[in-house]
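REVIEWER CHECKLIST
Item 1: Sequence provided? yes
Item 2: Single chain? yes
Item 3: Sequence as submitted:
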Amino acid sequence: MRTGSERGSRHKRIAAAIAALAAIVLVGTACGSNGGATSAAANPDHLDSSKPFGGDPAEEGTPKPGGTLIVGMYTEARSFDPVIGSNLMASAVYDSLLKMDSKGNPQPYLAQSMDTPDGGKTWVMKLRPGVTFQDGTPFNADAVIFNVKRQMDTPAALGKLYTEPIQTMTATDPLTITFVLKRPTATFPTSFALPFSSGNLGSIASPTAVQKEGADYGRNPVGAGPFQFVDWIPNNKIDVKRFDNYWDKGKPYLDAIQFRPISDTDARYASVQNGDVDLDIGGFFSELRQASMNKDLVTYYGPGGDGQYLYYNLTKKPFDDKSVRQALIMAIDPKALNATQYNNVGLLTTTPFAPDSQYFSQAAADAYPKYDPAKAKQLIDAYKAGGGNPDFTYNTGNSPDDHQLGQFLQAQWAAIGVNVKLQFDDISTFIGPIIQGTQFGTATWISGPYENPFPFMTNQFHTGGINNYGKYSNPQVDAALDEAAASTNPATQIAAYKKAQELITQDLPVVWLSQAAKAAIARPNVKGVSRYLSSELFWGGTWKS
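Item 4: Structure as written out by the authors:
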């Protein structure tokens, strides 16, 4: 994939086929994020998607330096170590090597360019000069290679998957890295532009700090981003302060940011509404809908693919039986789901892609089981008659939204003869031992909207994918996803993702609920918001009026 970067005279432009691949759009956002943006003020039945990627600097005036921003987060951080990820606060400490534009294409950020001279087998990355880490360590090619190698050598690293194509990486000069891959891989630059919380190769830690802190590095991070880590009191707050030697001179504008984990959705929204926090990073339709209709708040949100769904634990009974998986889907009334869980503004879904995405497969959507409680009960009765026990545990977090959804699904499934035990855990227990440890029956999850179909489809549905918590495996799906990741032909990619969707729909490894509702909700004096649709924010340009 082409980065769209500033081109060095020594580097050729990317082959035409890869340039064409730059037309890839944000999955599911397409027209919905810009041309199809809607304002809730104009139509209160819709969510405000008029500012999907942040504010317009031309409309916000001259940035004012100083002040502390208080941010309410829907989740606690797991670690600041890039090999562990799962931290929406880390983008304050780190700047990524590349950054996605509104079309999902990687662009320069800490790297000045990333080009291929041979159609995707060799990639040459040029770094920005004059950058230092917050501990004074030079930011150079050796530091990038050190970090990529950590991802490569750490078995559980979130970014390990993205290192698989790498055959060699060489510092050809202090600011240049040459990656030689095992095969042409058009999507390779995307790995350096992904959100920190999803795992990436672009968040670069100071090698000096990593070697000094060892296993404690995740609680003592040092990056080259706009803010320097100060302290972290678990389940209370994380503080960062302005990095005075930041490479983008004049930034950051803020003196400090304090991140506060507020897992309760109602409490988090009330906090931004009454001014206890300046910015709310949330993941639920309830607060997004309220914010969309509140003229005293600014909503940053864009719809897209993936979203809220349930993992089936395919390693446990009764989920090893497709008839049970099908019955549980057919038992859910979509109208009742939307009314009770999403205030009738939910964008219900049946595939990983939104209908306006070029990757969306109508065939997959048509094949997804339809609401039919009578048929669902027949399938469950047949399973019981064969000696099976369809009862299971439903696992989720402990927010009011989680309780409400769990109780709704429990009632839907009880109507077809399935008794479901509800288990609610705090978010760290739920994500750690329950989800990542595959100790669940079914489990709720929210993913996306993602900036590019690669690597998220691979992470979620490929055998061994880092987010494939239900342990789904289909060699045909693996082959389709591998083909999409490697191809330089947009038509080939589209066909491969459609094929993967159709195969996934045949297998039913997850229960689709709705597209994601991840938003940033701000007080009107918060300016310079810049974000990915998946909630990752870039803090260097944020300021308070």
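Item 5: Key structural point noted by reviewer: The two ends are 38 Å apart (CA to CA).
Item 6: Recommendation: ____
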